[in-house]
């Protein structure tokens, strides 16, 4: 290979590496908080002042808040923020490193809290991340067997293809996130949009597979492989609270 061709080849590799870095999946923050009994109203009022404190510190993230309406975490609050880079995580942590005043500090009202970072997986999702969450969501947390990771991912992709081909009018809007910090791995979250409670009549992704929606040929192989790859599944219904959330318009960042 001549020097000019070698230089051109290296230039192409550099461009490919830069494009891959620019297209890396965005980071998502997920938090789960339990509140002292009888302190929910005080917590919610304090949380609103806490978001105002974030604004005063110059922090620019949007935070979405849900209450857990079913499952072992019922009554707790889930908080999430989507679409960040790791540099933005550093910037946010620096901005809110201090302690707010007592009237804006929800920590004394909590009995427990946990925080995790995930990466959005567009290749394992049926839709892009929404700008605003749906009124209700099915929250599915899946722990996968490490040796079954490939089967799990391929099965999800196969299920989406089958849904698009066979049931496009009733296709679920599913957003997939993969854990990168703060728990057992491989761990995934699937958030399925539900506009209202009546929409829960439609079977979710894992229910569809277990009920045999993919019941023939290669599709059934995808279903069987996915179910074999799973170590545990945790599901709950979430109700979105716009009044408790902090939504920052893109122009204010």
What does this structure look like?
- Helix content is 33%, strand content 27%.
- The model is unreliable at 1-22 (pLDDT under 50).
- It has helices at 3-22, 40-56, 86-95, 149-166, 205-210, 217-229, and strands at 27-35, 64-68, 77-84, 110-120, 136-144, 174-181, 187-194, 230-240.
- A hairpin with an 8-residue loop joins strand 2 and strand 3 (77-84).
- The protein has two domains: 27-119, Alpha-Beta Plaits; 122-238, Alpha-Beta Plaits (2-Layer Sandwich), CATH 3.30.70.100.
- It has six helices and eight strands.
- It has an eight-stranded antiparallel beta barrel with strand order 1-3-2-8-5-7-6-4.
- It is globular and about 55 Å long.
- Helix 4 packs across helix 6.
- By secondary structure, the protein is of the alpha+beta class.
- The longest helix has 20 residues, at 3-22.
- It starts with a helix and ends in a 13-residue tail after the last strand.
What order do the helices and strands come in, and which of them pair?
Elements lengths: L2 H20 L4 E9 L4 H17 L7 E5 L8 E8 L1 H10 L14 E11 L15 E9 L4 H18 L7 E8 L5 E8 L10 H6 L6 H13 E11 L13
Antiparallel strand pairs: 1-3, 1-4, 2-3, 2-8, 4-6, 5-7, 5-8, 6-7
Helix pairs in contact: 4-6
Biggest sheet, in brief? 8 strands, antiparallel, barrel
Query: Over all CA atoms, what is the radius of gyration?
Result: 21 Å
Unreliable runs: 1-22
What's the CATH C level of the largest domain? Alpha Beta
- The geometry reads as globular
Give the SSE order as H and E letters. HEHEEHEEHEEHHE
CATH topology of the largest domain: Alpha-Beta Plaits
How much strand content do the residues show? 25-35%
Helices, by number, come to: 6
What is the number of E strands?
Answer: 8
Mean pLDDT over all positions: 84
Helix content: 25-40%
């Amino acid at each position: 290979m001549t020097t000019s061709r070698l230089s051109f080849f290296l230039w192409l590799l550099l461009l490919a590496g830069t494009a891959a870095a620019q297209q890396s999946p965005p980071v998502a923050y997920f938090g789960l908080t339990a509140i002292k009994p009888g302190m929910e109203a005080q917590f919610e009022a304090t949380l609103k002042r806490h978001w105002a404190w974030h604004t005063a510190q110059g922090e620019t993230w949007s935070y979405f808040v849900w209450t857990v309406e079913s499952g072992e975490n019922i009554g707790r609050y889930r908080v999430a923020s989507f679409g960040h880079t790791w540099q933005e995580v550093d910037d946010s942590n620096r901005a809110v490193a201090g302690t707010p005043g007592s009237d804006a500090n929800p920590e004394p009202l909590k009995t427990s809290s946990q925080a995790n970072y995930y990466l959005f997986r567009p290749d394992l999702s049926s839709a892009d991340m929404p700008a605003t969450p749906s009124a209700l969501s099915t929250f599915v947390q899946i722990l996968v067997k490490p040796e079954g990771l490939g089967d799990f991912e391929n099965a999800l992709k196969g299920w989406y293809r089958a849904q698009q081909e066979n049931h496009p009018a009733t296709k679920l809007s599913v957003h997939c996130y993969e854990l990168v910090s703060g728990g057992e791995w491989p761990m995934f979250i699937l958030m399925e949009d539900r506009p209202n409670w009546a929409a829960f009549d439609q079977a979710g992704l894992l229910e569809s597979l277990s009920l045999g929606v993919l019941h023939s040929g290669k599709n059934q192989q995808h279903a069987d492989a996915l179910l074999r790859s799973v170590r545990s599944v945790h599901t709950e219904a979430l109700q979105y609270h716009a009044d408790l959330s902090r939504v920052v318009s893109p122009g204010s960042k």
